[in-house]
Amino acid sequence: MPPESETGLPRRSFFAVGAGALLCSIGGEQVLLSKPGDAAKADAAARRIAAPRARAAATKPPPGADPVDQLKFPTPQPQPGGVRREFWIQARDALWDIVPTRPRRDQWHGRAVAGPSVYRAFVYQQMTVGFAAPLGPPRIPGPTLYAEVGDTLVVHFRNGLSERTGQALTMHPHGVKYNPDYDGVYLGDFTRAGGFIAPGDEFTYTWEATPDAVGVWPYHDHGPNHTLNTFRGLFGAVIVREKGAKAPDMEAVLFFHSLAPPVTGLERQFQCINGRAFAGNTPTLRAKAGQDVAIHVMGMDSNFHDFHIHGHRWKDPNGTFVDTPAVGPNETLTARFVEDNPGRWLYHCHVFTHQDGGMAGWYLVEP
Ligand SMILES: [Cu+2]
Q1: Using one digit for the tens of pLDDT, what is the confidence trace for 270-279?
Q2: What is the DSSP track for 52-121?
Q3: What's the 362 CA to ligand 1 centre distance in angstroms?
């Protein structure tokens, strides 16, 4: 028998938790994701989880329950002058190409990228009213949800994974205000209504754009298998502005994240921006001189990233000029400046292993 580590895993496996490997707790089970094919073990563990007791039998409190678990919450309404902003969002799986150029190419270095590069992603797809039809193709990230202070975001969520291969999912937002029913988090026996949406089920979340929700925030899966499913692509952004505030002339949302072999089943690790790797595949941003530019960067893996744009600088929240600030997991940084420097520019993560693994893109500025 190999010696056991504190995690209960063989020590050899524990030390193998290195590049791209994940140790996930899924409904009381621990699953090590260290190589292609391991995701199936996590999916199987997630499918073994029954609907939480607190939800299935609210009258019979689970062991360890506290009076707060019995609290009832009203659904919030918009403030005077605010509106309900309704969204219909379906989670589904979709084949996603991390390097869609053909032949696969890194335009920055003018070189070929070895394939394959397609994996089965999980995505949040925006739908028309009543989930009648997709509003667009599946994409990473999911739709950006906009609101103004005083509004409510009413998000009709459907778990569109198949019953056979599916598992419970949720939508959990940062930044906006919500009561425990709309937290969208799996909490074992203490899970509330929005924390376990089984395949085929629907749930409506109501989130409040309070004055302290102004900003740019991520949302992501927080169900029983949240780490793996978030890494698969279940994330997006919420943008809350002051009432009547003018939007920037150019606004972009960039998620910096990795797609590792245990998640994709592919042999190599890709360092991604919005699900894509290498310039020419990652988003190409465009602006014009004189425009008010806002580029929002969020970390969506277990690493810190350094956001650098060549030829540009801006002020951080402390008023210090920067051109390579750091952003951590689920944190947001915004590069906001008046564009004054036309040309072809590279933007990239300045963690060297990330930039070399594909975390780079173009920023094209017209005079
Ligand atoms: Cu990075």
Answers
A1: 999 999 999 9
A2: PHHHHTTTSPPTT--GGGG---PPP-PPTT--EEEEEEEEEEEEEESS-SSS-EETTTTEE--S--EEEE
A3: 16
Q: Same domain, yes or no, for 128 and 241?
A: yes
- Give the mean pLDDT of 279-298: 98
Q: Are residues 44 and 96 in the same domain?
A: no
CATH number at residue 207: 2.60.40.420
Domain identity same for 120 and 253: yes
Burial of 235 (0-12, 13-18, 19+ CB in 10 A): buried
Residue 279 CA to ligand 1 centre (angstroms): 14
**How far apart are the CA of 334 and the centre of ligand 1, in A?**
16
Residue 359 Cα to ligand 1 middle (Å): 7
From ligand 1's centre to the CA of 144, what distance in Å? 22
Residues 168 and 127 in one domain: yes
Measured in Å, residue 307 CA sits from the centre of ligand 1 at 8
At residue 337, does pLDDT exceed 80? yes
Instruction: Report residue 86's pLDDT band, with 50, 70 and 90 as the boundaries.
Output: very high
pLDDT of residue 7 exceeding 50: no
